[in-house]
Amino acid sequence: MKIAVEFFSIIITITLGCLILSSIMHGNNQISEARDFYNVVVNRIEDSNGNRNVIKDCIQEAEKHGYVLSVTDVTMYEDNPSKLVSMKYGITIPIYEIFGGEYEKKAVIQGYAR
After folding, report:
1. pTM passes above 0.90
2. Element (H, E) at 70
3. Alpha-carbon distances of 82 from 23, 62, 112, 114, rounded to whole Å
């Protein structure tokens, strides 16, 4: 009987450990997807030299992915255009959803497109 209790305790501990680790990996995947998307947006804005149509397309595409993208013109010199690009995104942690709760952490990435 003692061996059965120890065995099931170990199985439950390993299962909870796997759930926690998979939640951490899921969160890291969401962060890296958001950063990759942000880098693509900044590169598109830089390559288009700050074209308004490209910025609108990027904002619409960000909304499709669940991100909030804002682009602010911070140009000081006409020959060197500069845009402040900030993107807000949410990170969900699946382990909370397993136990019936919802938790989403908001994060922001900011940088310049020159």
Report:
1. no
2. strand 68-73
3. 38, 20, 7, 5
Residue 2: other Cβ atoms inside 10 A: 6
Query: Please, what is the Cα angle at 29 between 26 and 30, to 5 degrees?
Result: 90
Instruction: Go through 89-113 and write b for each residue having 16 or more CB atoms within 10 A of its CB, e for each that does not.
Output: bebebebeeeeeeeeeeeeebeeeb
Phi-psi region of 100 (alpha: psi -120 to 50; beta: other; left: phi over 0): left
* Calpha distance 105→103 (Å, rounded): 7
38 CA to centre of own chain:
9
pLDDT of res. 50? 86
Q: What is the mean pLDDT of residues 66-95?
A: 90
